[in-house]
Amino acid sequence: MIKKIFRVLFPIIGGGIVSLLIMGNMETYNGLNKPPLSPPSIVFPIVWTILYLFIGLAYNKYREDNDNKEKIILYYLQLALNFIWPILFFNLNLYLVALIILLALLILTYILTRTLNSKLFIPYIIWLVIATYLNIGIVILN
Predict the structure, then answer these.
(1) How far apart, in whole angstroms, are the C-alpha atoms of residue 17 and residue 14?
(2) Can you give the residue ranges of every domain in the chain?
């Protein structure tokens, strides 16, 4: 039971830690030229909390029936890239490097969606596409 709770909560806790690390740099983001259709800043923490819950639930469901080490490594790799991206983007202002990480994350998440056979990853992929659009716009406009 503790393992199940950990699997579900780990992405939320990790995302919370990352949000604390980037919190002081949101003013820089707010000052950037952003592409059209950029959502208001309040949307990001709400969406990410929901997505991290879905990510944890999908992984937990997968692990109940499977123990494939390669897929487990892929899962934690995508989570690591997910946690690294905001630090590169918001704290270090490395927008192009962040974009490369985001593209790798998008590909990896697509692979995971198919291999874990979870529809819970679909909103995550949609949000990553939106994030990629925003990141590309910021690279071009700034």
Answers:
(1) 5
(2) 2-21+42-141
